[in-house]
Amino acid sequence: MLNQPYRYKINESSFAHYWNEGVGVQLLQKLGFIPDLKVADKLIPFLYEWDRLGDQLVLDLHEKKGFVEGNKSLYAYLKEEVLPYDEKVIWDTFFSKIDVKPTWLNGKKLKLGSELSRRAGLSALIVLRDYCLMGGYESSAINKPLIYTGALKKGAVKRLTDTVNFWVHITKENGLQRNAEGFRQIFLTRFIHSYSRINILKHTDWDSNKWGIPINIWDMLATNLGFSLVFLVGLRKIGIHPSEEEVDGLFHFWKYVGYLLGIPLELLPENENEAIEALYLWTMTQREGDQDSKSLADTLKEEPVMANYPKNKLMRMMMREVHLFYNHFLLGDYSCELLGLPSTKIGRFGLVSIWKTRQNERLIINNETRIQAILNGGREQERVRMIYQRFNNQ
């Protein structure tokens, strides 16, 4: 087995608090046992494994044509447009190694997972931003590729714009069909990962013995869990109570997305219990956050002010306070203190949105009202996506 890298240690602050005193206590009660961290030792090799198939595609195409032209080629291929012979061969070779309709794929579960994501409306985007994304900064290691690709200099506006665009597209109705924009977004993201990894290793002083390979398989799994289990925990905390079928659908949805992104099937959880165990093993062997973590958290905190919408700066500053309130409501004061996020009184206006979310949840009493909530939530999310694209996609 590979030696333990610097990043691999028993967590004693942020994530330990989560499992011992935070929401994680309830998750472990649901699981019924505390996972053995000796199992995590067997996962260390995945810190040195990466998406070799994606990297080869990027080396064969994007590195030669340029990243923008490479993505145009992807779009043309998926639309079955005519491509130069050499390019088509590269794409044919890549997709011949991916079964995009595997036998285990369950269309009904996939549909339920995307519908849950949409019916949560604006609350889903709040949970993604202020819980999943911000909470991820509590690990120093998983965010190091962001530092090496200049995330602090670029700011959080572009990253959030891209994340919202990705998530809204893939969770749309039929968003994972081959001809859908969501399907293209998944492979665009996969090649962004590969392109970033190749260039970090080629052009920087990245220390793989310390941090593992950039955007490695185990960290990719952790990100997947952020979109599934952590997202689910956030929804429940904000007042949304999915059915068992919706929960199963959500994990099936992210199993398929994770598979398309290049995560080995054997690592992807089938259900909530498997996801709890996987999240415990990853979080409890993470080195605590560092100054980079605080800097990334601060950049995300200031994102509403740095964005181009609303036009009124006072309103943008108000939005920053509201997001800070959600940070404290969802993450808790302990995690926010570790990340250097101040408390807020003005932002408590966010309670109004939580109250409305819980009121709307009570109105879902049958399938008809559930379908209406899905339609309304999807429209809300698309409006937000369009605002980001119009004002912040620069």
Describe the 3D structure.
The chain has 394 residues and is mostly helical. The mean pLDDT is 96. The longest helix is centred in the last third of the chain and has 26 residues, at 367-392. α9 crosses α15 (217-238). It has one domain (14-50, 101-181, 188-392). 68% of the residues lie in helices and 0% in strands. It contains 23 helices and no strands. It has helices spanning 14-20, 24-31, 38-41, 52-60, 62-65, 67-78, 85-96, 107-119, 121-136, 144-148, 151-154, 156-170, 181-203, 208-211, 217-238, 244-260, 272-283, 291-301, 303-306, 313-331, 333-338, 350-362, 367-392. It comes from Sphingobacterium litopenaei. This is DUF2236 domain-containing protein.
List the helices and strands and how they pair.
Layout: H1 14-20, H2 24-31, H3 38-41, H4 52-60, H5 62-65, H6 67-78, H7 85-96, H8 107-119, H9 121-136, H10 144-148, H11 151-154, H12 156-170, H13 181-203, H14 208-211, H15 217-238, H16 244-260, H17 272-283, H18 291-301, H19 303-306, H20 313-331, H21 333-338, H22 350-362, H23 367-392
Helix pairs in contact: 1-2, 2-17, 4-13, 6-13, 8-16, 8-23, 9-15, 9-20, 12-13, 12-23, 15-16, 15-17
Low-confidence stretches: none
DSSP strand (E) fraction? under 5%
Number of domains: 1
How far the N terminus sits from the C terminus, by CA atoms, comes to 45 Å
Structural class by helix and strand composition: mainly alpha
Number of strands: 0
**Overall pLDDT confidence:** 96
**Helicity level, as a percent range?**
55-70%
In sequence order, what are the helices and strands, one letter per element? HHHHHHHHHHHHHHHHHHHHHHH
The gross shape turns out to be globular
Rg from Cα = 20 Å
What is the helix tally? 23
- The quaternary structure here is single chain
Main pleated sheet? none
Domain ER-bound oxygenase mpaB/mpaB'/Rubber oxygenase catalytic: 132-345
Protein name: DUF2236 domain-containing protein
